[in-house]
Amino acid sequence: MAHEQVPETVKDVQVADGTAVVTLTGEVDMSNSPGVHQTLVEILQNRPDRLLIDLGEVSYMDSSGVGVLVDALRRMRVTGGKLGLIAVTPRVKSVLQITKLDQFFEIFPTRDEAMAR
Amino acid sequence: MSKQTGCRKRALRPCVRLTMPSMPRYLAMIRAAVGCLAGQEGFSDETIDQCVLATDEALSNVIKHGYACSPDGGIEVILRPICRAGRTGLVILILDRGRDTNPTRIGGRDLCDLRPGGLGVHIIRSVMDKVQYRRRGGGGMLLRMVKFKDSASARPDSSGSSRLASGTN
């Protein structure tokens, strides 16, 4: 899959057997969340059954980053797919909790556990 | 000599003034400055995170709504440590010259909706102890936020069990 101008925040994208795994890294804020969003939209155009987003290396995320996750979740629901978050750091989890969005996401401690489902 | 209560009474504390263009790429620099100052004032990791997040959300709102994402605007951030009735805190002022709005109409949205956007004000009000929006004479808005050092958790009425977690900044 070709991604033009993939932002540095998107460290890695792997797609296999209907599952897309996206690894994000660093700080996700208003400056780079549009790029992350564009990358996810491109991935979802291929209608994967599952989208897993690894947040283990994300040290900071504001509401614009959370909004990207929410939009991806909504798109996955439309196509009947599932979205899971992997290794959510305490800081990011706190933002999800404050906004009460943690209840909508399936969260896995590790990638192995997410892949085993 | 009067008894001191944790910090100097009405001590005049110096402030830090920062200015940034209305461009998201500068958010990280302001976040770093806020985190650094709050750390120097002895705030816990949790309260530092809260100050940083609230400032980021406020600045993002100014860029998005005040300046409609135009990069030509200017935003001033003033950080002033305070001591009130023995409580140490940090005042964070955000000043802009963008489009102003009625302060009474600035509020968070219904969190039951699963949709992106509109979360910034809710986050700010949840993690800060005092939040006040004002119109500025001559145009633009002023946001005054206060966080006290001994106030660690997000407001239960806004966020249930939510807390910003400890961590390095």
Radius of gyration of chain A, in Å, reads 13 Å
Derived structural class of chain B: alpha+beta
DSSP summary, beta strand count of chain B = 5
Q: What does the average pLDDT of chain B come to?
A: 85
The quaternary organization reads as heterodimer
Rough outline of chain A: globular
Characteristic terms for this protein:
heterodimer; A: about 120 residues; alpha/beta; 5-stranded mixed beta sheet; globular; B: about 170 residues; alpha+beta; 5-stranded antiparallel beta sheet; 4 helices; 5 strands; disordered N terminus; disordered C terminus
Description:
The complex is a heterodimer of chains A (117) and B (169). In chain A, 37% of the residues lie in helices and 32% in strands. With 117 residues, chain A is α/β, with parallel strands linked by helices. Chain A has a 5-stranded mixed sheet. Chain A is globular, with a radius of gyration of 13 Å. The relative contact order of chain A is 0.17. With 169 residues, chain B is α+β, with helices and mostly antiparallel strands. Chain B has helices at 27-40, 45-66, 120-127, 156-159; strands spanning 16-21, 74-84, 87-96, 130-135, 141-148. In chain B, strands 1-2-3-5-4 form a 5-stranded antiparallel sheet, with helices on one face. At the A-B interface, α2 and α3 of A face α1, α2 and α3 of B.
